Amino acid sequence: MNSGITVTTIALLVLTPLLVWRVYARLKTQMQRQRSIFTRHYTGIFVFLAMIVVPASELFGNLVSLGALAVGIAGGIGYGLWGLKLTRYEETGEGYFFTPNARLGIVIAMLFAARVLYIGFELYANQGGTAPTPRFTDSPLTMLVVGLTGAYFATYSIGILRWRLKRQKASLTGQ
């Protein structure tokens, strides 16, 4: 009787909680007071919009996954706008700073990390099988999470950039 449990499987099961904890700890440090840097905001906009556009270009034949991506985008925009309302903005002599709501950012990032981990487990479990490995864009749930994550962080980056440009314009006009 072969139960299919190997040393690799046991190592994977033992190391997964460690990986989740490290991702959470890293995210927690990123959700603290940050200096507003233009290039970082532009990079965030570009990367997270690409995170949406690239899978969307593959989905025109799969309306269910495309719909899930669209729903995720709508939810991510709303979630991002809510996150911007909860953000603390500061203008000091040292520069411009913002403090995102840690819970919102960590929840959305951990949701994405959990989905990526699930896909990794799925690939591991299906290795050597006769069924073809599904594409990343085949799962509506994955597309929902991608849309939610990409739209949240893109919306957040756009909002922070708009705040920064507005503050910079006000300081130039002396307001």
Report how far the terminal alpha carbons are from each other.
77 Å
Spatial extent as radius of gyration: 20 Å
What is the helix content? over 70%
SSE-based structural type: mainly alpha
- Note the main sheet: 3 strands, antiparallel
Q: Given the C-alpha coordinates, what overall shape results?
A: globular
- Determine the mean pLDDT: 87
Order of helices and strands: HEHHEEHH
Strand order of the largest sheet: 1-3-2
Q: What portion of residues belong to β-strands?
A: 5-15%
The parts where pLDDT drops under 50 for at least 5 residues are: none
Q: How many individual β-strands?
A: 3
The number of distinct helices, counting runs of at least 4 residues, comes to: 5
